[in-house]
Amino acid sequence: MSKRNLSIRVPILARVEGEGAMDLDIRDGAIEKLQLRIYEPPRFFEKFLEGRAYHEIPDVVARICGICPVAYQVSAVNAIESAFNMDPGPWVKAMRRLIYLGEWIESHALHIHLLALPDFFGYQSGIAMAKDHPAEVRRGLKLQNLGNEIMRCIGARSVHPVSIKVGGLHKAPDDAKLARLLRALEEALPEALEMCDWLASIPLPDDQQTFNCTALKAANYAVEDGILVSSTGLNLKPEQYDQHFTEFHQPQSTALWSHMDGEAYLVGPLARMNLTAQTMPAISQPVMHKFAHRFPSNNMFDSMLARGIEIVFAMQEAISILQGYSRPQHSFIESTPQESQGQGWSEAPRGLLWHHYELDRQGIVRKARLVPPTSQNQARIEQDLHRSLLNFGLDNSDDDIRLHCEKVIRNYDPCISCATHFLKLNTVRR
Amino acid sequence: MYGSETGFLARESLPELFSLLHVQGFDIVAPQIQDGSILYQVITGAEQLPSGWQDQQQPGSYRLTQTESPLNFSWANGPQALKPWLFAPREVIWRAEKQPDGRLQFCEPDAPDRKLAVLGVRSCDLAALKLQDAHFLNNRYHDPYYAARRKGLLIIAVNCSHPADTCFCVSTGDGPHAEQGFDLCLTELENGFLISSGSETGNDLYEKLPLTKATEKQLHNQLQQKLSASKQQRALPQIPVKQLLSERRDHPRWDDIAERCLACGNCTQVCPTCFCHKEGDLASLDASTSEHLREWDSCFSEGHGYMAGHQARPEIKDRYQQWMIHKLSSWHDQYGRSGCTGCGRCTTWCPAAIDFVEEVNLICGDES
Amino acid sequence: MTRAAPKPQCDSHPYLPMEAEVVEFTAESPSIFTLRLKLTDEQQNQLYSFQPGQFNMLYLHGVGEVAISIVSDPQDERLIDHTIRAVGRVTKGLQQLKPGDRLGLRGPYGRGWPMQECKGQDVIIVTGGLGCAPVVAVINYILMRRKKFGKLTIIQGVKHSDDLIWRERYDYWNTLPDTQVLIAADHGGAVWPFHHGRVTDLFSKSIVDPANAFAMLCGPEGLMQAASTGLIDLGLQPERVYLSMERNMQCAVGHCGHCQYGKDFICKDGPVFSYPEISDRLGVQGV
Amino acid sequence: MSDKPRIAVHKFSSCDGCQLAFLNMGEDLINLAEQVEIIHFAEAGPVAEDALVDIAFIEGSVVTAHDQQRIKQIRNNSQYLITIGACATSGGIQALKNLAADAADWPAQIYGQPQYIDSLDQSGAVSDYVKVDFELWGCPINSAQVVELVNSLLRGVSPIDHQDKVCLTCKQEQIVCTLITQGKPCLGPVTRNGCGALCPSFGRDCFGCYGPAENSNTIGLANRFAGLGLLPDEIQRRFKLVHASASENQRIIARDLTQDLAQDLAQESSDE
Ligand SMILES: Cc1cc2nc3c(=O)[nH]c(=O)nc-3n(C[C@H](O)[C@H](O)[C@H](O)COP(=O)(O)OP(=O)(O)OC[C@H]3O[C@@H](n4cnc5c(N)ncnc54)[C@H](O)[C@@H]3O)c2cc1C
Ligand code: SF4
Ligand code: SF4
Ligand code: SF4
């Protein structure tokens, strides 16, 4: 290996959500500095939540992130319902799962086609890629739109939907719209399967590494709730989260970082597939079986196929919820605020999202703490960048090194908007 | 003459009316309970009619409750009834297509040809229909879309038995019982309906229905119902409102209204006689085709008084005056009567709870 | 007053425009332009006729429709002129049209100026603001048939001297026999050759005989109100004072309700009204 | 070089939701790319922050000193500058910070090394710093708004500024009023339409995410809320969410409602 010196600055990372940069310094053929620098300014959401009534929280937290608002809303209502000791029942849970599946489909399809794939085919953008691969990109946009359509049916719109409330939904969705949605999903399912075949055929860097995984687990693939499991053997309820996970502040970043028992860890589609694929009904079906052997995977680049498989799962799951749909008497149960505290979580498209609230007698928030997936993945991303770049070889051209690093980062589908909206409230105070 | 006879249709026989209408190709629009209110929607059978529902209406407030009663129509009008079915809230009135050589082609959409039978139309809305006809049909220009829908319309009126506290049709001379303008008219009694016809089509249906002759007792009940429904709390003043309102533009009460009025336009949207609409274009991204739409507008909106660089009615007060003076004064000159048929919707559905009748009385009353 | 507006041609579907072609585009000033249009359908073209003071609805593809007065002469070859001020969305879009471009046109609509009634009479025309199109049609009409009318005074008022367009045209008209042009500016500037002040100051200078004159007014409502009373004070009969009114207009056929001016719909009862028809509302805030 | 209009989409402090109005357009995204040349749109791929463009869309509010410089630079580089969404147009939800007395201390309270945090005391609307040619309201905006806007710009005409109230949409769509039938504190009567009356169509009261409408009588509505039984604090919170900085909402937020209500009550009892 030559003793080269190199300095690469990527001031604006393209095709990621939010504002991040990457700095790489190589001195004497060794990596001196390599970091994903998150500079998007903090938005202080936890502060805004203080003083708001419990019923306002879903509308506030949604606005942390336009790409996964449902994840925020569901984690929040899970936490508050746990604080108020409420069980909104199976219908409500099914509806939340349904709108959440819509968000997975939308977010994953968007990431695959518009953010990640252009890297592998050598385009600047998904739009540019559409000129040469019109069928594939249009199919992707169609699936993305179907995800949006699920969200529109249940929540009126796909960005900051308006139907989720503590105790249930503001209103049961319209039967006729659900019937149309069901038909559309059934018709499009074969296209999602084709997409998976196509994704599986794309040659990926073989980049084996070892890392910790963390995900929620449930009898049927965890989405809107579950029990936390990890490759290190954890098995936790939301209220135990704090005992194992800690956040800290890195100077280059406006986001907080997180460690699990002092180590970096991965959350998100690959972590979910690695830990809980056997709970996914889709994976055991003949059409999908061919993908099963790829998981658990030590190649971070398999995240893309994991997303594709989750799209198929989400569509099948949505179809089965819709097939069993019946209109309930009431779309929510009344809540009785009480002085309390509660934790809740769910699997955002990018991974675990944990919320904690302290509420007073009227249900006004006294304190809020939220830990988003991208903060959790940050330490892992930097770890990966180092290992992956060494695997790749520091002798490659500047452009290739730069592109490879960006590929690695984008592979996590980091959502920087999310990452920076959080503050650690139990840090130093005068 | 139609309507000289009155027959009785037992409640169990109401499905017969539905079958007759279906055979003649009508879709049936009837009241339905939705989201805490009574809306008119297409239904397929008499069993879908709500029963036992009653309404409580106050300025800015509407609540429904269900009772054990078998009655299907023991409530007063909800937010909208007939108007949206004829004067569509939003429709494409023509389309412009740009050819590759730059030429423009203007195409009209197919005229609606649906046959609709509306069940449950109240007398105030029949009066309003007459006014909308005068505006859209008997004007120098004919509205082709309104005309086509009007042609396919069959009206089954139901006499009001339970006016709301906000109703004042008696004082405008438009209710509570329907006198004309329907094909069939029903009066709901405990066990069924007294029916009379008001048109040839109505007569034809009347002949085919399994009716018994109305008894003295039933006719007496009908009269009693009319008398009790005529006792309404609210009334428009029986004074020359037409002149007084336009003369009293400086009355201090207008300022008081303007403090409360939200200029949201709800009153104009629920009013069965309001006809204002605006037009606009919805073009495709590649600029080839453009749909020319019209949609309901309101004299409370900015665009209504907008002129190049100038606003004719900038203040909420100006807009409220336009609404009320048009309705109760200008309308006389335009269409020979007031534009208000006493349905009370503008009062119930006002989010600011402004009481239309009370305000008229205050502005035109003698105490100022 | 029973001057009914004539029906337009495209009557079967009152909202559907006809296709028209831009034959000529003339820039009158940076914001004022004249579009000379021709209906592309020969038959429609033959049938089209109008009176001074009537207007068309012009449609810009994908953008919208606006009411614009017709300024050409009714007897002219089948070309229809519109002088337009680019103020907003549609009119600024129309300003970008070039000869050969197509647009939509429906009309003519409304009740025009009382041209029959004022044959053989003196006429005084008062306009305010930037080039008031509706009266240009009248001026052209009278000048084309000069012998059929008596004396003509044209009074134009502007806020600022820079606002005056068609200066040469005014100068030219002023040289014609029995024709007088008077111009006033609120703010004239040092080299302004005309009157400093209000148009109403100029009435006494007019050559017309108030007892036998018709007045035609167009401009801001305040100006028209002041001018009406001024002219009546001068001795004109109120029913011979005519005003062209303006309100927002969407459909032009009396359906959309936007152009209501008290009891009247400006599109079909106007835009031209005699003073007694509207004196109860003139200048009243909010009407 | 093509003569298509050159566009840029810039991000400031935001949730990225308004950019999704582009990315969620589906087929229209590809159609749009045929009509315009996308020069800078980091989330979609192209990065050329300092390029000259015809139209710059701005998402997000201005919250750092660096943001201030950046927005000025973008203004200089763009013929038209258009804000998309609440954050850019009125300061958005971040502007809740402007209302907190101790906001300047927040970074220190929160970050281990606050000296690395560049954050102004205020979350500003873009128009606080540079001239804005047109504003698209909404939190978030939707694709239909973008398509309509682009349509106007491609034709060289000014876009339509929709500013009627949500109520008009409700009635056109035959959505039942939540205020009248449920006594809910709906902001529809003072909120711009454009969303399609989504909240009332889902049985809940509008919370004003499209911002104040033209002629918004927020005081009249706040009084009505008091009549419906809301306490002063609840009334103020209604107006203090997505567009807290808008002047119409400030009329309610910046007022001592407890005082006002007490006066009103005194007034009422003396009237009797
Ligand atoms: C009878 C009549 C004749 C007219 N003749 C002329 C003329 O010859 N030349 C000329 O330059 N202008 C004329 N106008 C005014 C012209 O219609 C408006 O200036 C024009 O509509 C404003 O266009 P905009 O580009 O601002 O449209 P936008 O701002 O896009 O207006 C939107 C809508 O509002 C309506 N509208 C806006 N302003 C007015 C207004 N002042 N009057 C009526 N409707 C309006 C338009 O019809 C359009 O449908 C006339 C108006 C009327 C009523
Ligand atoms: S003005 Fe009011 S009461 Fe009269 S018809 Fe209209 S909505 Fe009904
Ligand atoms: S629900 Fe809200 S927006 Fe709809 S009509 Fe009522 S007040 Fe207006
Ligand atoms: S109803 Fe109001 S809060 Fe709901 S989406 Fe529309 S503008 Fe936003």
UniProtKB/TrEMBL annotation, chain A:
GO terms for molecular function: ferredoxin hydrogenase activity; nickel cation binding. The keyword Zinc does not apply. Its cofactor is Ni(2+); Fe cation. SUPFAM superfamilies: HydB/Nqo4-like (SSF56762). Ni(2+) binds at C65, C68, C415. Fe cation binds at C68, C418. Mg(2+) binds at E46, L370, H421. Keywords: Iron, Magnesium, Metal-binding, Nickel, Oxidoreductase. It holds the Pfam family NiFeSe_Hases. InterPro entries: Ni-dep_hyd_lsu, Ni-dep_hyd_lsu_Ni_BS, NiFe-Hase_large. This is Ni/Fe hydrogenase subunit alpha. It comes from Amphritea balenae.
UniProtKB/TrEMBL annotation, chain B:
Residues 250-281, 331-359 form the 4Fe-4S ferredoxin-type domain. InterPro entries: 4Fe4S_Fe-S-bd (IPR017896), 4Fe4S_Fe_S_CS (IPR017900), Helical_ferredxn (IPR009051). GO terms for molecular function: iron-sulfur cluster binding; metal ion binding. It comes from Amphritea balenae. This is Sulfite reductase subunit A. The keyword tRNA processing does not apply. Keywords: Iron, Iron-sulfur, Metal-binding.
TrEMBL record, chain C:
GO terms for molecular function: 2 iron, 2 sulfur cluster binding; flavin adenine dinucleotide binding; metal ion binding; oxidoreductase activity. Residues 15-115 form the FAD-binding FR-type domain. Binds 1 [2Fe-2S] cluster per subunit. Gene3D superfamilies: Nucleotide-binding domain of ferredoxin-NADP reductase (FNR) module, Translation factors. The chain crosses the membrane at residues 123-143. [2Fe-2S] cluster binds at C251, C256, C259, C267. This is Ni/Fe hydrogenase subunit gamma. Its cofactor is [2Fe-2S] cluster. PANTHER family: ANAEROBIC SULFITE REDUCTASE SUBUNIT B (PTHR43513:SF1), DIHYDROOROTATE DEHYDROGENASE B (NAD(+)), ELECTRON TRANSFER SUBUNIT (PTHR43513). GO terms for biological process: pyrimidine nucleotide biosynthetic process. The keyword Transmembrane helix applies. It comes from Amphritea balenae. Keywords: 2Fe-2S, Iron, Iron-sulfur, Membrane, Metal-binding, Transmembrane, Transmembrane helix. PROSITE patterns: FAD_FR. InterPro entries: Cbr1-like_FAD-bd_dom, Cyt_c3_hydrogenase_gsu, Dihydroorotate_DH_Fe-S-bd, FAD-bd_FR_type, FNR_nucleotide-bd, OxRdtase_FAD/NAD-bd, PyrK_electron_transfer, Riboflavin_synthase-like_b-brl.
TrEMBL record, chain D:
It comes from the Bacteria. SUPFAM superfamilies: HydA/Nqo6-like (SSF56770). Its cofactor is [3Fe-4S] cluster. InterPro entries: Hydrogenase_assoc-protein, NADH_UbQ_OxRdtase-like_20kDa, NiFe_Hase_small_N_sf. Residues 15-152 form the NADH:ubiquinone oxidoreductase-like 20kDa subunit domain. GO terms for molecular function: 3 iron, 4 sulfur cluster binding; oxidoreductase activity. Keywords: 3Fe-4S, Iron, Iron-sulfur, Metal-binding, Oxidoreductase. PANTHER family: COENZYME F420-REDUCING HYDROGENASE, GAMMA SUBUNIT, F420-NON-REDUCING HYDROGENASE VHU SUBUNIT G. This is Sulfhydrogenase subunit delta. It comes from Amphritea balenae.
